[in-house]
Amino acid sequence: MTLPGPRTLALALAFVAAYVLLDWLSYVQPVLKLGITPWNPQAGLALALLLARGAGWGWIVALAALASELVVRDNPAGLPVLAASSAVIALGYTAAAVFLRPRLAGPISNPVQATWLVGTAMAATLLVAAGYAIVYLAANLLPAQAVVPGIARYWVGDLNGVITVVPLFALLPMWRAGLGAIRRRALEVAAQALATMGILWLVVAFPADEVRFFYPLFVPVIWIALRWGVPGAALATLGMQAGLVVTVEDRLDFLPFVDIQFLMLTLGTTALLLGAVVSERRRALERVAAQEAEQRALLATAPDAVLSLDAGGRVVSANPAALRMFAAGGGALEALPAGQLLPGLELVAREGRSSLSASRLDGTRFPVDIAWAGLDSPAAARHIVIVRDATERHAAQARLRERDTALARSMRFAVAGELASALTHELNQPITALVSYLQAAQILAEPIQDADERLPGTLEKAAREAMRASDVMRRLRDFYSGGAPRTGPVDLAEAIEGVRAAFAERVRRDGISLELDLPAGLPPACCDRIQLEMVLHNLLGNACEAAAAQPPDLRRVRLSAQPSGDGLRIEVDDSGPGIAEEVAPRLFEPFLTTKPDGMGLGLAISRSLLQAQSADLALAPSRLGGACFAVQLPIRCG
Ligand code: ADP
Fold it and tell me: Are 375 and 381 in contact (CB under 8 A)?
């Protein structure tokens, strides 16, 4: 068992002292020396402590109750009876605290919490009162006929104590804010205090023997509860109760104090519930005001135009972005039909999102994307339309399309070139042989006397045609090889970003995680930008295809660039199955493919394009477990 710390000990001692003091202060009109008094704020203190600290403090409450019995009350009962009655008090309030704790986190701020407190307090105080009376009855210290009035008196006393003290205690952590508010509204507080004291004084100064003369006390309490919510209600009822206790002994002897306390109970409960409603309303209003301020700030800073439309489709309000977008030259949008700004809106509105051609006040048109939402508020049917200027997006898409088309065209050209070069290489030998054979045949045919006179001419024509075929092939190859590449400084980050953008959709669709590793400050490479993009396009296409063959969470492709030797090196790495064994030895040869619809030209073309500009393409060790292709580029041109 750990010993309690000094702070815990100090709190326990302070609680016991406060409990005894409160009991002593409110010790009026006890029943038969048994200490059954009609106002017990110490009960509220006990419940407040248990609510704040938990059921573990139940035994401190029992100790405080016992001390109080011994110190305050000149109780004729022996120690066992006093111990039993103290245990009843501690048990009752501990049970109430266990039940209430999850329902009352922090100060009471709404009627539901107030009702939980009042309801639970009613049950708990009744149980404690009954238990207390039974203990004394059993000890023969309370006559049977005094049991019911005793319970009633004890019950109302404890309940009054709980209802006034518990809400105040929960507010203790906010005392600074409370003091600030009182200082700000000092005049009002003074008026309310004066009114309360004045009415209390009237009630006491002109004694009448009927409770109804106490009803005016409701007026200041309700006034305070309405203005200050729960804190005001709790303070006002506490003030009333304390005031009555102070004045009761010598002035109100004509009325049983317990009757007044029943009235005070009604007053306290009413004020608490009313205060809770007011507090809740105030918080709701604060929330709404905060939300409105947030929305205003949001609308003011939103880059998109936000139009609020009435049920008839007219603009009710427009944010600054809307004014900039539609009324660039100044002018108001309010009360304009939305269809004038967004022709065709009524046709697409129900679909939620759409693209339209919008019209500015000066009649110029521009493309927009819109999102539409209906607000079915009870006050008025409204629509909210969010409009985003799509000019830039359309332009970017067009740029991307153009670039794709240019790349595809260059690629087709390169494919044809590679094809021509491969065919030239393959057919050159047989054609040369053919020409030699034909020339030999010409020589062999010459001495033949009775040969057809057309034979030499035919053989010569055949040789010429064969040479022409070879020539055509060579010219085709030269044409498609496209001359020398146009090299210049190329920013790798830009080139890589361009290729990444072209693959963005595919990467998203196939669920591939594409990592970029581009250190800042890389010098520009010296190469033909279009051809480099073609190569990267090819490599990234292969890498995505390879990665997509893996299970979804293993699909990774990594594009990186770094200085290497006296140049730069771009790597395209993937987590695919790696290079198949049968293609590995001849990977860069044309027409080598493992794909059913592949041409086997991509790598061959890429390598010859790069080699024509003092760059190179090679296979490198993969970090992602698949294939990694490395492009080595020079930095210096020429
Ligand atoms: P294609 O893609 O038309 O087959 P390529 O020249 O681009 O032509 O590729 C040739 C072959 O190299 C492919 O068929 C494939 O077997 C292999 N290959 C290329 N890139 C990769 C890669 N990233 N992972 C695995 N194999 C690859």
Answer: yes
The answer to whether residue 301 scores a pLDDT higher than 80 is: yes
Q: How far apart are CA 334 and CA 348, in angstroms?
A: 22
Whether the CB-CB separation of 627 and 574 falls below 8 Å is answered with: yes
Superfamily of domain 488-634: Histidine kinase-like ATPase, C-terminal domain (3.30.565.10)
Both tokens of 282, joined, read: 């105030």
Residues 136-147: tens digit of each pLDDT: 888 888 888 888
Q: Is the dihedral of CA 52, 54, 59, 62 positive or negative?
A: positive
- For ligand 1, say whether the CB of 543 is within 6 Å of any of its atoms: yes
Distance CA 570, CA 576 (A): 18
Cα(517) to ligand 1 centroid in Å equals 23
The CA-based dihedral angle spanning residues 469, 474, 480, 483, taken in that order and rounded to the nearest 10 degrees: -150
Please determine, for residue 638, whether its predicted confidence score (pLDDT) is greater than 80.
no
Would the pLDDT of 261 be above 80?
Answer: no
Per CATH, the number for 394-481 is 1.10.287.130
Domain boundaries in the chain?
Answer: 6-281, 302-389, 394-481, 488-634
Atom number in ligand 1 closest to CA 603: 6
CA dihedral 217, 221, 223, 227 (to 10 degrees): 170
For 87-99, how does the pLDDT look when each residue is reduced to its tens digit (9 = 90+)?
999 999 999 999 9
Q: Which CATH number fits domain 302-389: 3.30.70.20, 3.30.450.20, 3.40.50.880, 1.10.10.10?
A: 3.30.450.20
3-state helix, strand, coil in the chain (%, to 5): 65, 15, 25
593 in contact with ligand 1, CB cutoff 6 A: yes
CA 265 to ligand 1 centroid distance, Å: 88
pTM of the model as a whole: 0.55
Residue nearest to atom 13 of ligand 1 (CA): 593
Asked whether 594 lines ligand 1 (CB < 6 A), one says yes
Query: Coil, strand or helix: which one is 208?
Result: coil
Per-residue pLDDT at 380: 65
Lowest mean per-residue pLDDT among 161-165, 484-488, 547-551: 484-488
Q: How far are the Cα atoms of 4, 41, 42, 208, 421 from residue 18, in angstroms, in the given order?
A: 20, 10, 8, 34, 103
Six token digits for residue 378: 């009870």
Cα Dmax for the chain: 166
CA-to-CA separations, 596 to 418, 578, 593, 599, in angstroms, rounded: 20, 17, 8, 9
pLDDT tens digits, one per residue of 135-175: 988 888 888 888 888 888 888 888 988 988 898 888 888 88
Residue ranges in 483-527 assigned as alpha helix (H)? 492-509
Sheet holding 513-517, edge to edge: 513-517, 556-564, 567-574, 628-634, 616-620
| Torsion angle, alpha carbons of 191, 196, 198, 203, to 10 | 170
Confidence check: pLDDT of 548 > 70: yes
For residue 599, what is the enclosing H or E element?
none
32 band by pLDDT with thresholds 50, 70 and 90: very low
Instruction: Indicate whether residue 266 lines ligand 1 (CB < 6 A).
Output: no
- 212 confidence band (pLDDT: 50, 70, 90): low
